[in-house]
Amino acid sequence: MTRPGGTIELARAAWLTCALLGAGARAAAPAIEISAEPLAAPCRPRPALLRSAALVVPGAPGTAARVYQASIHPSDWSAEFTAATLRFDDAGLPQTAAPLWDAGAALTALADFNRRKIYTSAIERGVRTTFPFTWSTLSAAQRAMLDLPPAGGAADGHGEQRVDFLRGDRRLEGVIFRRRGGLLGDAVNSTPLRVGAPAAGIGRDAYQAFYDRNRLRRHAVYLGANDGMLHAFDEQDGSELFAYVPDALMSVLNLLPDPAYVHRAYVDGPAGAGEMLLGTAWKTVLVSAMGGGAQGVFALDVTDPANFAQGGGALWEFTDRDDAAMGNVTTVPQLARLRLRTRNGVPEYRSFAVVASGINHYVADGHADTAGAGALFLLALDKPASEAWRLNRNYYRLSLPAGDAALASGLSAPALVMDDDGALLYAYAGDLQGNLWRFRFTGSAPWSGNAGDHPLFIARDAARTRQPIAQQPRVVYAPDGGYVILFGTGKLLGTGDRAPAGFSSQSYYAVLDRPATSAATAALTRADLLARELDGGARDTVLTVRGGAVAYDGASGVQGWYVDFPNASTTGERSTGAAALADGKLFFNTVLPGADPCGQMSSRTYVLDALAGLAPNADGLPVSGESTGQLIGDYAPAPVPLETGRDSAARRSNGRLAVNRRLAVVSLGSAGQGAVRTSSTRSALAGGRISWREIGNWRELHRAAQR
Question: Which single residue of 187, 245, 460, 638 has CA 20 to 30 Å from 279?
């Protein structure tokens, strides 16, 4: 099994590739290094504490937001995970209060590690079963793996002590195992996920009964960590409700207690969750990626996190052992309902996890995808525990055409577009070769070939060099129908991505797609888009964006807009994280590694009108010549727009009342300076009642509008 992010493992993969080539096999694309260490951390000096994964949950207007953030102690790879409130002071600046709790400290303070509710799963007699992560309950195969010494060789008889160490036993630290500053492991590439009460109003009858049963359940915040577990923490006090150890990681858990431990990834990917109908029962399901820890994802029933084992437990795991096209998933898994077919006029639906294949699926690790192309996976959430994974029965693989074999490939998470019934209609996803793909779900399963034989768009810079897309796009509705897909280019996955020798031009794109009428025979390029210009120096505090109006009427032939980040050849500026959308505006941060690969990275915050690609003025309207690109002297992965207030304006001549909503853009840096306000904007929204008019035939009008 390869261990992405390690020099030895990458060298071994390269050797295996050469050996295969000598035997006449097809050349594999280059492997992607996935760093298990925080890329934002400066090398000199190495910080004692580094902020990492963060989540901001907005409160109701006028109330405090909640900030959940993990912090890493690189000296021993232990971690803190805190909750705090965020308010704006009289000057409009964000102020973060002292932590309400620290889940890492709470874990470390536990008097009895046996009280922890830690679970795993395994397939026994053909059935996946969830059980406690204890020596006596593990399967024979799992015990055998944990009984092996890290350096290899025969079993050493310390397997039971290793399990106790992972559960929190500290009695053998400094004796045969390494010392830890705390029990919670670090979170580098994973992100916190909050799951509260079920969403209201999704359905009737069965869903209403499900909602009534669970609306008062414990709210939980989930965090994947490099201690081998996905943790569920109580939102109120930070206590651990349960933890899950994926079976896919069992073969490398024996490395964690080693006194010579070399940091590596375990549960180091993002997670998604939602309410889904599994057969005839509604459940709240969480699906987590493992990032560089393993190639694959796992699904849990988290309907009642306080009683995880008594609920559905682990639903399934899906790895490259089940399908070789599954790689290291570094972008968020999502949940969706799909229409399988229509029988006698009645549509049949099923719930799936929608997972991009990720990267390194072609690496020679014993389960390599020889085709080398990316794929979008649909994994049935209701797969019976006794049923093996079977293509086109309980999962679907939508494979892409083969790309350039000389370039690394890898598909990132798609943006999902639903139809009027809430079923998946289109998915838009980018890959590391700069291709933007559209997946169409208008037909019946298995939807083979639904991505077509060419991408919707190819991202290339002015010199026609392909630009990698490593983020999840965003989608907004276009005037006169269709969608505008928004995404940036550039990647930051391994330490090599910080090297100035590899800096190249990167951009942000908005691409129009009208799938209902599209008959394009070739992929769009930047020649089909209208350019925006960013003016400013590499260290200027803000930049100025200029450009003409973008028409989406079809007559001009313009299919969207793009903007190149200036000075990218020296700053390395790129867009790696998904954007946020609010009131028709696009919010995203870029990363600037700088000329010194060991120095402190910085970021810029951009606020642009999603359709126009221009910055808003004081009234919130897009105008050429406005400022954006606020420089932050710290690495901040993503901006968060938060409402700070509303102002009611005078009623307009048409009787409509305008409400001005004020938004502050907050970024959380990695160097511990807390929340930073990086921009602000406002939007004019319709508010209040315009007038009353009785419509006698509203049912007929409603039906006509749905046709």
Answer: 245
Q: How far is CA 679 from CA 575, 581, 642, 667, 671, in A?
A: 18, 14, 11, 9, 19
When computed from its CA atoms, the radius of gyration of the chain, rounded to whole angstroms, is 25
Q: Which residue, among 251, 256, 257, 305, has the nearest Cα to 283 in the 3D structure?
A: 305
Phi, psi dihedral angles at 13 (to 5 degrees):
-60, -40
For residue 388, what are the CA distances in angstroms to 156, 384, 394, 505, 527? 34, 8, 9, 46, 48
Q: Say if residues 311 and 305 touch (Cβ distance below 8 Å).
A: no
31 DSSP 8-state letter: P
- 423, exposed or middle or buried, with CB in 10 Å at 0-12, 13-18, 19+? middle
Distance CA 229, CA 185 (A): 9
CA pair distance 628, 615, nearest whole angstrom: 6
Q: Exposed, middle or buried, 123 (CB in 10 Å: 0-12/13-18/19+)?
A: middle
In degrees and rounded to multiples of 5, residue 463 shows phi and psi of -90, 10
Task: Kindly report, residue by residue over 495-546, the tens digit of the pLDDT.
Answer: 899 999 999 999 999 999 999 876 667 899 999 999 999 999 988 999 999 9
DSSP string, 147-192: TS-TT-SS--S-HHHHHHHHHT--TTBTTTB---S-SSBP-SS---
Backbone angles phi, psi at 264, to 5 degrees: -150, 170
Please determine, for residue 137, whether its predicted confidence score (pLDDT) is greater than 70.
yes
pLDDT digits (tens, 9 = 90+) for 229-263: 999 999 999 999 999 999 999 999 999 999 999 99
Predicted structure pTM score: 0.92
409 vs 706: which has the higher pLDDT: 409
Q: What's the Cα-to-Cα distance from 72 to each of 3, 104, 210, 277, 647, rounded to whole Å?
A: 21, 10, 38, 38, 41
Contact in structure between 460 and 469 (CB atoms under 8 Å): no
195-201 contacts, C-beta under 8 A, 24 or more apart: 195/219, 195/220, 195/221, 195/222, 195/273, 195/284, 195/286, 195/302, 195/305, 196/235, 198/275, 198/282, 198/284, 199/274, 199/275
How far, in Å, CA of 400 to CA of 412, rounded? 13
Residues in the chain: 707
- CB hemisphere CA count around 116 (13 angstroms): 30
The token pair at 42 is 């400066």
User: How far is Cα 487 from Cα 474, in angstroms, rounded to an integer?
Assistant: 7
